Amino acid sequence: MAVAAAVAAVGACSSPVTVPAGPYAADPVCGEVLQALPGELAGGEERSIGSQSIAGWGEPAITLRCGVDVPGPSTERCITVESGDTSVDWLALEADDDMVPEHARRENGSWTFITYGRVPAVEVVVPTERGGDQPTAVLVDLASAVERTTPERSCIGTDDL
Questions:
Q1: How far is CA 53 from CA 32, 38, 157, in A?
Q2: Whether 122 contacts 107, CB under 8 Å
Q3: What would the pLDDT profile of 36-50 be if each residue is shown by its tens digit?
Q4: pLDDT tens figures, 55-96
Q5: In 3-state terms, what secondary structure has residue 161?
Q6: How many whole angstroms separate alpha carbon 55 and alpha carbon 43?
Q7: pTM of the predicted model, to two decimals?
Q8: Would you kindly state where each structural domain of the chain is located, as residue ranges?
Q9: How far is it, in rounded angstroms, from Cα 38 to Cα 140?
């Protein structure tokens, strides 16, 4: 019992995830998204947060920000992630892309994904050391929460033009 209490106390002392809130973080849908998020992601436990509409898991933290700027039409690589009956489109951004926020630019690299065609938009940053060979796997685990946002557009391929 004392060991469990000590472990809980150490976990409670970890520093909160501090990334800036998105400009639309107060959107009520972001609250719905956050309530539906998993308590564990890619083997990392959910961490305390320091901003509105933010979530983080593990160390270094995989972060999610709800209420970021909605991307317009783009030539960025767009991927569709399906989980059960859920389908969510994401822009997969390269590390040097102008759309990658400053907090996501890491020395060791990371993958940045922003929902495409959904309002409010959601951003997920997966540090290289946490993403392994399949950084998009976390998007599958987040799909049921992110589907609470409103789809307004979807990815199209060159065959659709």
A1: 10, 14, 31
A2: no
A3: 999 999 999 999 988
A4: 999 999 999 999 999 998 888 899 999 888 889 999 998 766
A5: coil
A6: 15
A7: 0.85
A8: 17-160
A9: 11
